């Protein structure tokens, strides 16, 4: 099953990419600064759309208490995101530094559109750090827990070592403390966690816009 990026997120990525492509065609320092941003951003966007954003496409099903399709694919994506998260965040540092140069060039040139774009893209990057990446990882952890609960229903169908069992049991205890003992509790708490994360992201975006 193809796990799709939520359409609003995909549309936002496409819009940012198109605006940046337009900026790279401008003459002078603004166009040059935009080209530097594009050089850093393009490979980063590719990785995001490969494994960082598609897991968010399961949020609607999880919030509705439905068993999502494509669990194996989602877990592969979220595990890769966890593995590559330090590199993704380091790439954000480089992208934000390039955006500061673009904003400065736009300010000197009196290019209000490119100045606003630089601020918008910086806010987008920070929202990914505090909202989208953590939410995607949380989707993977919740899906893993659902799979563990389903596997326990097949009594005798699978055998595991004591070490594997206790490792899974410890992981489930952590998730149970965070999300609750039932699917209903987990869905509600997952929604509350995501709302809190989104509120934090909105606050960061507002601060960036005012800066």
**Relative helix content:** over 70%
Number of domains: 1
How many helix segments? 7
Share of residues in strands: under 5%
Strand tally is: 0
Provide the gyration radius in Å: 20 Å
Unreliable segments of 5+ consecutive residues: 154-172
Q: How is the biggest beta sheet arranged?
A: none
Please state the overall shape, judged from the principal axes of the Cα atoms. elongated
Question: Which structural class do you get from the secondary structure elements?
Answer: mainly alpha
Output the helix-strand order.
Answer: HHHHHHH
Mean pLDDT: 80
Subunit organisation of the chains: single chain
Query: What is the rounded distance between the termini?
Result: 43 Å
How is this structure best summarized?
The chain has 211 residues and is mostly helical.
Mind sketching the topology for me?
Blueprint: H1 7-24, H2 28-52, H3 59-63, H4 71-109, H5 112-153, H6 162-179, H7 183-210
Helix pairs in contact: 1-2, 2-4, 4-5, 5-7
């Amino acid at each position: 099953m193809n796990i799709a990026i939520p359409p609003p997120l995909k549309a936002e990525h496409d819009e940012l990419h198109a605006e940046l492509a337009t900026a790279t065609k401008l003459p002078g320092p603004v166009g040059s600064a935009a080209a530097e941003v594009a050089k850093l951003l393009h490979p980063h966007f590719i990785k995001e759309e490969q494994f960082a954003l598609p897991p968010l496409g399961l949020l609607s099903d999880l919030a509705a208490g439905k068993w999502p399709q494509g669990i194996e694919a989602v877990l592969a994506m979220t595990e890769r995101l966890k593995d590559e998260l330090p590199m993704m965040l380091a790439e954000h540092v480089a992208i934000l530094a390039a955006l500061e140069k673009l904003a400065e060039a736009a300010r000197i040139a009196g290019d209000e559109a490119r100045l606003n774009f630089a601020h918008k893209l910086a806010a987008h990057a920070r929202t990914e750090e505090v909202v989208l990446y953590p939410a995607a990882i949380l989707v993977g952890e919740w899906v893993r827990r659902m799979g563990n609960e389903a596997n326990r229903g097949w009594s005798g169908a699978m055998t595991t070592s004591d070490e594997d069992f206790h490792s899974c049991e410890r992981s489930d205890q952590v998730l149970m403390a965070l999300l609750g003992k039932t699917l209903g509790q987990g869905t509600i708490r997952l929604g509350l966690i995501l709302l809190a994360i989104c509120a934090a992201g909105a606050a960061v975006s507002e601060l960036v816009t005012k800066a």
